[in-house]
Amino acid sequence: MLPDSGSAGAADHPVVGRTRMSAGDRRRQLTDIGLELLQERPIHEVALDEVADRAGISRTLLFHYFPTKSDFYAAVVEAAGQRLLRGRSPSGDTPRERIRSLIAGYLRLVDSSRDVYVRLVRGAAGGDPAVMGILDELRWALVPNWLEAAGLTTADGPMPDATTQLIVRGWLVGFEEIALVWDPQVVPREQLVDRLTDAFFAVAGHVPVG
Question: Max Cα separation, the chain?
């Protein structure tokens, strides 16, 4: 195993380079640096030499923690996706109120992180299969949350049929695109939230009470 120490060329990071970290801490540090760089460019344009330099380690040591460039990109995308795609807990007493709260909250989130979101969703490592797989898993993980908020299942109950799950997953991907291209000067926020709420229940095949 390689020692976790900085490279001789990382002169700009003398303190970080001399700091010994556990494997888990080092992976988190490198992932956090990737998230910082994702603020500036698509993930596939993040240079591993720059990541290693910021961490005060060698490129060779970075590959000790992430065996391939694809592994590193996937870890960064997963971390970003957990923050941006996981959504928020719904609020409200009725299914319609809960779905409406999820939609409104998601629109606010994309508004506040639009550039990062675009880089994450549209620039996911130039189609890297590992990265695309992570995004797909994150989207599928949202489906039970939305179905539960809509009153179509419970936390410990059976899921609706596979067709309903697939359609809801597809609706969520379409919702992502709407959130990215939406101009509040053209379509008022409340109007969009109402129409999207109606659309969700229509595709889910369920008429909410309340």
Answer: 66
The DSSP output letter for 159 is: P
- What is the Cα–Cα distance from 177 to 162, expressed in whole angstroms? 23
Q: How far apart are CA 205 and CA 163, in angstroms?
A: 11
Question: Residue 122 in contact with residue 38, Cβ under 8 Å?
Answer: no
Note whether 48 and 69 are within 8 A (CB): yes
Q: What pLDDT shows up at residue 205? A: 81
CA-based nearest residue to 100, from 146, 157, 169, 152 = 146
Output the pLDDT for position 86. 63
What's this model's pTM, rounded to 2 decimal places? 0.73
Residue 42 has φ and ψ, to the nearest 5°, of -60, 155
| Cα separations in angstroms, 56 against 2, 15, 65, 148 | 15, 8, 14, 45
34 contacts 72 by C-beta, under 8 angstroms: yes
Buried/exposed code over 49-88 (b: 16+ C-beta within 10 A; e: otherwise) = eebbbbbbbbeebbbebbeebeebbbbbbbbbbeebbebe
CB atoms within 10 A of CB 28: 15
